[in-house]
Amino acid sequence: MKGGNMGNMMKQMQKMQKKMMAAQEELHEMSFESSAGGGMVTVVANGKKEITDVQIKEDVVDPDDVEMLQDLILTATNDVIKQIDDKTNETMGQFTQGMNMPGMF
């Protein structure tokens, strides 16, 4: 391999790395939302998988049925995390497509 080719390859790798970092930062700033129970429970998270808001409608708060409320919160939370994972795989997968790099994203 000639030195010029290696230099070009390194420049391309650096360019791709900058694009990956920008895409990752953009993902981290995104907001994801999921509801359960017909909107009775809503969970909002950012792309870092940090829960930023939980909204619970008063109608769903029943002291005699706490398990239902817990289930709704779990459902909404798990769904919002899946949305983040799916978006991350979709966005970051473009950088690893065709590469055999186990453990990447």
UniProtKB/TrEMBL annotation:
Coiled-coil annotated spans: none
Alphabetical list of SUPFAM superfamilies matching this protein: YbaB-like (SSF82607)
Keyword Glycoprotein tagged: no
The keyword DNA-binding appears for this protein: yes
Top-level lineage group: Bacteria
InterPro entries in the record: YbaB-like_sf, YbaB/EbfC
Compositionally biased region (Low complexity): 7-21
Keywords: Cytoplasm, DNA-binding
Major subcellular site: cytoplasm
GO MF term (any one): DNA binding
Annotated compartments: Cytoplasm, Nucleoid
Region (Disordered): 1-25
Entry's Gene Ontology cellular component terms: bacterial nucleoid; cytosol
PANTHER family from the UniProt entry: NUCLEOID-ASSOCIATED PROTEIN YBAB
Protein task: Binds to DNA and alters its conformation. May be involved in regulation of gene expression, nucleoid organization and DNA protection.
Annotated family: Belongs to the YbaB/EbfC family.
Subunit structure: Homodimer.
Protein name, entry field: Nucleoid-associated protein SAMN05216231_0059
